[in-house]
Amino acid sequence: MKKNILFVASECSPFIKTGGLADVVGSLPQALKKNGKGDIRVCLPLYQDIPKTWRNQMEVVTTLDVEVGWRTHQATFYQLSYKGLTYYFVANDYYFSRNGIYGYEDDGERFLFFSQAVIEALFLIDFKPDILHAHDWQAGLAVALAKIYQPVQDMKTIFTIHNLKYQGIMQKDAFEDLFNIPPDHIAGLEWHGLLNSLKAALFHADKITTVSPTYADEIKTPYYGEGLHPFLSERSDDLVGILNGLDMEAYNPKTDPNLFTNYSYSRKKKQENKLQLQEQFGLTIDQDIPLYVIVTRLVEQKGLHLIQAILDEFLQENVQFILLGTGDYEFEHFFYHAAERHSEKMAAYLSFDEALARQLYAASDFFLMPSLFEPCGLAQLIALQYKSVPVVRETGGLKDTVTPFDEYNDTGNGFSFTNYNAHDLLNVLRYSLSIYNDKNKWTTLFKNIKKSNFSWKDSAKAYDSLYSSLLTSEMQHA
Ligand code: GLC
Predict the structure, then answer these.
(1) What integer is the mean pLDDT of 44-52?
(2) Smallest Cα–Cα separation from 368: which of 399, 389, 394?
(3) What CATH number should be reported for the domain whose range is 3-245+457-477?
(4) Ligand 1: which residue has its CA nearest to atom 3?
(5) Global model pTM greater than 0.90
(6) Atom 10 in ligand 1: which residue has the minimum CA distance?
(7) Relative to the CA of 301, which ligand 1 atom is closest?
(8) What residues does each domain of the chain span?
(9) Ligand 1 mutation pick, 12, 160, 161, 211, max ligand atoms within 8 A of CB
């Protein structure tokens, strides 16, 4: 069945990216296109930070007045074609000509404007989606407004949760200040007396998805539910977890131009990357010392408190550790000083650098990801592609992609621990080290890793079936 799908999101690679959301919104439509069954388009805000090279290729589609409560703001819709798909960009200088893409006091209002503009544009433009597929809270109100205003007859909606922690919450007076919706719609947008953009989407979406099966289960519990678990449990029949894939062309150690030495399966060639980085970071140059790395945003979600608690102890072993990332001051400060204390064994590069990130995936023997929660996680998939063994906490997508190595049955592609406990992490790190030091077992593990494959193919198929099931059930009802 041929379908028109409109993705609505706040970031999309290669145009603008702060995290994994951009990778998914960048890759999934392209993967769906390969299945060849639809016209998939993507809509995002035109931020000031979107580079000129893209802007120069854009054409105006339409200009419209958008009502945000008592205000009227103009939105200009641009489009460009990239790798065979159409991308729309919503421009408004007041809301989007700013540095960076998030972090403003009026973010709620900015993305309400974006959502309202998308819905109003659907009355005007000649693309009529069968399904509006929105991602994360920034596009949540587009789902709600689609149901309230119905710009396209029978259009269905899907909302994908990439991270439940961020919900786009505004004070209740925002209802009067920012919306013109009839009062009986307010209850759907509200949660505990506040306006909640994400809950608004959960309430209105025909289907809710999230980015791994385990996270889909976890978010129905208080520990992971971020206060929305009762509501997610209520909607559990319409909630499904579909694992994200990895763009295998974009992340390929055989062709990656950032690496010192390209490789596919050769351990020897992979190790040349390690020797280079050891030299670059002033660590002891020795290919036999196992190199553990972490590439991450420095935020609590990523389990950094656990690493903090055991780092000095772990670095007493014959190991090396490199951290790349930027984020909360607390962590930057800690890792900066830890690297000073252990300068022969550890380095911390407190910034974000895509080329260095890829060099680290290639150079490392182990990749750490002890997250507190992890809806899917992309880094462990990249690590597997670059034959770096993931050491993870069993949560969300980490649990669904990393199977603990079983030295008796020769199965598994990584190491994992269950409880959010620093010494459980230390134990599993020590165990990983013992496997590294056992040549036969390490060879087996390395072989297993080669078999891990997380491309978009299966995920795109799963989304495609979900789209079909929504549209078929509609036809049956008609
Ligand atoms: C968010 C999640 C991450 C997931 C990504 C893409 O960044 O924290 O786990 O991989 O979205 O879905």
Answers:
(1) 98
(2) 389
(3) 3.40.50.2000
(4) 377
(5) yes
(6) 377
(7) 8
(8) 3-245+457-477, 267-450
(9) 211
